[in-house]
Design goal:
Layout lengths: L1 E2 L3 H6 L14 E5 L6 H13 L4 E6 L4 H7 L4 E4 L3 H10 L2 E4 L7 H13 L5 E4 L1 H8 L10 E4 L3 H8 L8 H8 L7 E4 L5 E4 L2 E4 L12 H16 L5 H19 L8 H18 L2
Parallel strand pairs: 1-10, 2-3, 2-5, 3-4, 5-6, 6-7, 7-8
Antiparallel strand pairs: 8-9, 9-10
Helix pairs in contact: 2-9, 2-11, 6-7, 9-10, 10-11
The structure holds ligand NPW, adenosine-5'-diphosphate and magnesium ion.
Enzyme class: lyase
Keywords: ATP-binding, Lyase, NAD, NADP, Nucleotide-binding
Family: Belongs to the NnrD/CARKD family.
């Protein structure tokens, strides 16, 4: 087990090239947030925006449009029942997040099937929340083509792998991961999140109990997405993922010095400050 340190941030977060534009920093599409869990989609997309993705689109239940734009007009919005437009949006994305607040009803199942069918081998697909629970149900297999990043909490991993929380040992987790598409990265969230990839296991050393608030995992998906979009090119999604997990915890930890609880929106606001600090450290 390799403990993550600040070094991963200096290694991954680079000063922005002078000759650049929004397209340089990647296109993230977030498919998330039904009528009940609209906040999940908004938090994931907001985190992608604050973590530096060049263009962010949220595909969600139509009712979430105004709430999103009242907070962040920078994020584009798509009604996820507009299937042709959604398919087009999937095709032009570099990184897709699917699942936070998606729900488990037949509409959510159809949407998940559609996303899994439309993604291609050049893309990164981050699967979280309800989407993991739906796959665990057995009727919708993970796609083989894209780079998969799964971000279950321990109960979601229980549903997916069949391993009880007490049975989630390193060896058992590695064996379960070997049943999934070959290059899958597993981010197994808990108070000290573990990341499994390439036969290796990493342990996050940041994060505090002040972060135990609904929406904190939704927020992590957006940070991973933005990091893969900006820094995960040339088939290097693993360092980008490790840095995103570390940064998410560090933001919460620093806030917790004088905040008893830390909200996802506060974590987002910290991200550009921390990224500036660590990109300069690399100079
Ligand atoms: N504002 C919004 O829109 C929000 C929308 N959300 C969306 O809601 C959907 C459902 O997601 P969900 O995570 O809330 O529920 P579910 O999948 O039933 O899992 C909970 C069960 O797992 C257990 N558990 C065990 N270990 C655990 C661990 N380490 N971390 C966490 N849980 C752990 C836990 O144990 P217990 O609390 O009982 O001790 C409980 O029995 C999903 O799409 C999500 O994206 C949320 O993000 C919230 C904000
Ligand atoms: N006590 C804790 N210490 C450190 N990190 C925590 C703690 N509680 C929660 N977190 C972090 O918050 C996130 C929770 O994810 P998740 O349960 O999926 O939340 P949600 O679905 O509500 O967005 C994970 O990244 C987890 O590591
Ligand atoms: Mg979650």
């Amino acid at each position: 087990m390799i403990d993550l340190t600040e070094r991963i941030l200096r290694q991954v977060i680079q000063p922005r090239p002078v000759e650049s534009h929004k397209g340089t920093f990647g296109r993230v599409l977030v498919v998330a947030g039904n009528e009940q869990y609209g906040g999940a989609g908004i938090m994931s997309a907001s985190a992608a925006l604050f973590a530096g993705a060049g263009l962010v689109t949220l595909a969600s239940a139509a009712v979430n449009r105004t709430a999103l734009h009242a907070r962040h007009p920078e994020i584009m919005f798509l009604d996820w029942t507009e299937t042709a437009a959604l398919r087009k949006s999937i095709q032009s994305a570099d990184v897709i997040v699917v699942g936070p607040g998606l729900g488990l009803d037949p509409g959510a199942q159809a949407l998940l099937r559609m996303v899994f069918t439309a993604v291609n081998a050049a893309q990164t697909l981050i699967v979280d929340g309800s989407a993991l629970t739906l796959v665990a149900g057995g009727a919708i297999p993970f796609p083989q083509q894209p780079q998969l990043i799964l971000t279950p909490h321990q109960e979601e991993w229980h549903r997916l792998s069949g391993l009880t929380i007490a049975g989630q040992t390193v060896r058992a987790n590695q064996t379960a991961l070997a049943q999934l598409p070959e290059t899958t990265i597993l981010v197994l969230k808990q108070h000290r999140t573990q990341i499994y990839a390439d036969q290796q296991v990493y342990r996050n050393t940041t994060g505090v109990a002040a972060m135990a608030t609904g929406g904190m995992g939704d927020t992590l998906t957006g940070i991973i997405a933005a990091f893969c979009a900006q820094f995960g090119q040339n088939k290097k999604p693993l360092p980008a993922t490790l840095a995103a997990v570390y940064l998410h915890g560090l933001a919460g930890q620093e806030l917790a010095v004088d905040h008893y609880v830390t909200l996802p929106s506060q974590i987002c606001a910290q991200l550009p400050l921390l990224m500036a600090r660590f990109s300069r450290a690399g100079l």
